[in-house]
Structure formats: structure tokens, C-alpha cells
Design goal:
The protein has 237 residues and is of the alpha/beta class. The protein contains 11 helices and 8 strands. Bound molecules: pyridoxine-5'-phosphate (PXP).
Length: 237
Amino acid sequence: MILGVNVDHIATVRQARLGVEPDPVMAATLALLGGADGITVHLREDRRHIQDRDVRILREVVPCELNLEMAATEEMVRIALEIRPDLVTLVPEKRIELTTEGGLDVMGQKEHLKETVKKISGAGIPVSLFINPSIADIDISKEIGADMVEIHTGLYANASGGGVKDELQRVTEVAKMAGNLGLSINAGHGLNYLNVRGITSIAGIRGLYIGHSIISRAVLVGMERAVKEMKETIGRF
Ligand code: PXP
């Protein structure tokens, strides 16, 4: 199971002073030294954290999977085709949200997403869709032409009591369905050093994309160690 480390929060701290530090490119290098299998950044339309320059430099220095999360807009497609990440993950984007709050509306946006996926995968870049844990959304993702899906694990991460088991079951069923349809399956959002073990027990999951909990630990113990500990946690279960 691969671990993609999201370094957006490093850029958030930098943008607090509109300066040059801390640099998400340096953080990415340390994450790779700690054992990350890939680096993820979300270039938001409002550029609130990651900047175009970050994605360009990361493309030059990341020797493994560079995953560009982005909204399905003309501007972002143009940037993706120019920078050529190893993977594009299409995500919904609302200006007022603190983080990506849910999966894509694959039903409502089907035609637009299909067109977007076609443009990106037509240029030889694999596309993943960030979707809610719903069987219907898996079917539509396949129809849209995605190579992969990333299942939103936020409901699982926020569940408590008996709800945890129910949400895990839901992710498990959706992952199974995606596998049956030949889609590669990733998972992410809200995963941390404790709850990640549930997701690692699901058969067929290719990769996990984790940001907040790793960066939070990195602030205290350093990036390399935080990533190494997450890798060990994933590998242990
Ligand atoms: N996957 C996607 C598509 C996301 O938008 C995010 C948040 O940026 C993550 C994974 C990582 O979520 P978290 O920061 O909660 O680990």
C-alpha cells in the first residue's frame, strides 16, 4: 500500500506571512527521505496554500508519484497538461471550505467530468476521482473513464461508537465494487495514526493519501520521523 503525503499545510504556514518559509518543496524532500511513496499537493483556484511555482519545482524534484489535486476547471487542466504530474486527482472545490468537504458530485457533473477526464488522460496522465463512499458513484466513475478512484474516508474518520464499524463496512463494500470494475482504489481524508489501521485492513486498496495528521506530527517531531512512523503504522496492520 503506497503512502502519498500531502504537504499543503506547509504552504499554509508559509502563506501566513506571504514569505518563503517553510517551503513545501523542502518538506516534500524530507517526506521522501522518511519513506513517502509520493507527494500530493492541491493547487486551489484561490492559491491559498500551494502556488504554481511549488508544483513546477516539485515536478522537477519528486522522482516518484506527484499527485496533483485540482478542480475540474479549464485553468487547472491547462496547468496539469503543462506540468504533467504522475496523477491528477479531481476534487470538488468551494472557496469557503476549510478543506475538501466531500467527494465529487459525479452524477450531477457527469458530462463535465467526462470531458475533463478525457482531456487529461488523452494527454497520457492517469486520472483519479475523489468520490464519496457510494456504490452508485463507483459505477459513474467507471462510466466517466477514470483510471482510479479515491474514496473519501471523512465519514469513517469522524464516526464514533458503532458508527465506525458501519462506515468501515461502507468503504469496504465500495472498494470491492471498484475492484470488480477494474478501477484502482485509493483512500484519503481524515486518516491518522490511530484510525488508519481500519482502512489498511481493506483488501485491494492501492494507496492512502494523508496530510493533516502527518504534518501535525511533523511540527513536533520532524517530517522524516512523522512519515516514517506513518509508514510503520500502515505496514504493521
Ligand atoms: N485526499 C484528498 C482528495 C484531499 O482533498 C485531502 C485533503 O487535502 C486529503 C486526501 C488529505 O486529507 P487529510 O489532510 O485530512 O489527511
